[in-house]
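Predict the structure of Planctomycete cytochrome C.
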Amino acid sequence: MSRIVSRALIALLAVVAMGAHVRGDEAGQLYAKKIRPLLERKCYDCHSAKAEEVKGGLKLDTLEEMLKGGPNGPAIVPGDLENSFLLRAIRYEEADYQMPPAGKLSDEDIRAVEQWVRVLKDAK
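Done. Here is the predicted structure for Planctomycete cytochrome C.
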């Protein structure tokens, strides 16, 4: 009986571990396919190492820079849509920080960023 319980426990742990790995892969795939290209098109002119002048002290080149954020705090908080400043800015919820200033992103692009922030919570 003990051997059966041990094997069942090992199998359960393996399934849980694979689920976490898949979630991390989901965040990486979403970033590579949708988020990074979006940031390159709409944000990097002002918020990257390539910008002549980094606006607002915020770089969006890497996850680490987004987590660090700028004067307004972290650009993203994994799993926390309400406290991710980047989301508030792209939704035009911040009167002084409506990004990008040239025009609001499509609903589809905003949903993609929201999904990415959600799945980052479980990414390793």
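The radius of gyration is 18 Å.
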